[in-house]
Amino acid sequence: MTFERGVYLGRDSHGDITGGEERSTLVLGPTRSGKTSSFIIPNLLLTTSPSVTTSTKTDVVNLMARARHDGATMLFDPSGTVSALRGVLRVGCSPIRQAQTWDGSVLATRTRGFAKGVQPASDVLTSRVRCGLCGKRMSIQQNGKGSTFYKCWSRGQGCDQPVRSTKGLSRAAVLGMSLLGTDEDLQAAIRRRLAGRTRTRAGAGRGDRRPAPAVTLGALSEHRRKLLELYFEGKISADGFKEAEDRLCADVEIARAQAAEESLEVQSKSDLEQRFEEVARILSDLDVETVWKAAEDRERRVLVEELVEWVTVFPDHLEVTVAGAPALNVRLEEVGLKGSEIVGVGGPT
């Protein structure tokens, strides 16, 4: 991460200060002392080169997704603890997916070092099930009697999420896809919701009195023109002009950032509507339940990877998120699950 003259450090009365070319910079400071906002963010905004940052918070990736549109903002979150971010591309690395042959994928699976009782990638919903209480992904485990179930990694360590059988969660995924493809009332409701969200910023609503960024930019341009006239007529000092000019420049940058953010938001929601129509069309032509019953696990896995984003588990219900659509609530009894599943000799109920 470099600026033309090295890492950007700040500005004084003589201008910009940089760390010099090909030099490392170490910044030390306590929590909330401004290391991110005063150093990391400015350099990310100034650089034209690819950058890699690590953080336990989402402030950097959130801001960059809104501020930079000349390249992709990518997120590597192997724990799955960060919620989906608009404009951010999730990336990852799996030795299993990179295998070129079946034998290679089996070898990669066996050498991953899973703990006893955990079945590696043995369910069609692997990596698609998460805990609704703590947000973490749920892992597959077995009770030694042939029954498999999903368990939150934090269970017993602050999370009270009950375990859920793999069969019940698969039924929920199938139900979600089936409803999205066959229930015309549900499709219409989703379309209304997506259309309403798309118009939120464009329409602004009667209660939103903030002017559009284009209007603000026009007003600031006119203000600057008048300021220049005052300066050329000698009605304002050079220091006064510079102070007012600095304020105007800051306001212009804010307005431009707002315009870019709103443009990205509208485009993102338009893409979401298009994605929903594509998925709804596919599912409407597909008898999901019949295909699911006839398919092998590897074929089911392909269907899940293409169409199911998440199955989120809560103590009293499930949420199935099909690609391009809002989460659908599924009652436990709809998929043969009970309010509390206890793992015993016979496995989860």
Low-confidence stretches: 111-121, 198-207, 341-349
The main sheet orders its strands as 5-9-10-11
Rg, Å, rounded: 26 Å
Number of strands: 11
Give the tally of structural domains. Answer: 3
Total number of helices: 9
Distance between the termini: 53 Å
Cα shape = elongated
Determine the strand fraction and express it as a percent band: 5-15%
Major sheet attributes: 4 strands, mixed
Task: Give the H and E element order.
Answer: EEHHEEHEEEEHHHHHHEEE
Structural class: alpha+beta
Mean pLDDT: 77
Helix content: 40-55%
Structure keywords:
349 residues, 44% helix, alpha+beta, 4-stranded mixed sheet
Explain this structure.
With 349 residues, this protein is an alpha+beta fold. It folds into three domains: 8-91, no CATH class; 116-184 and 286-335, no CATH class; 188-279. It has nine helices and eleven strands. The chain has helices at 35-46, 59-67, 102-110, 166-182, 184-203, 213-232, 238-284, 288-294, 297-307; strands at 8-12, 15-18, 73-76, 88-91, 129-131, 138-142, 148-152, 164-165, 308-313, 317-322, 328-331. A four-stranded mixed beta sheet has the order 5-9-10-11. A hairpin with a 2-residue loop joins β1 and β2 (15-18). The longest helix has 47 residues, at 238-284. The protein is elongated. Mean pLDDT is 77; it is low at 111-121, 198-207 and 341-349.
